[in-house]
User: What shape does this take?
Amino acid sequence: MNESQIIDRYFELATRADSEPYFALFAPDAVVEDEGREHHGIDAIRRWRTEVPQVRYDVLSTVESGPGRTTTAQISGDFPGSPVNLSYWFEFTQDGRIAVLRIRV
Assistant: This one.
């Protein structure tokens, strides 16, 4: 898969209950930053995902920026301030997995 396909797959799988294909997108030592907190490695990313509410993702744009890609997505669901646009910064490993994901308002 190329980087654009990985990003598309990320948003597709993020809404599903079966999370194993979702976690397979990440490198074993991946870092996810969300709400100012960093989660290092698959086990920490699994714990983080249990805290993320069920939401809908509507991808608005994806652009290359430096060593990665920035995707803007509108997130809607049962949470205060819904809907909200968030920025997702993706960096990838050479073998095509997510190495870094930074989610920001």
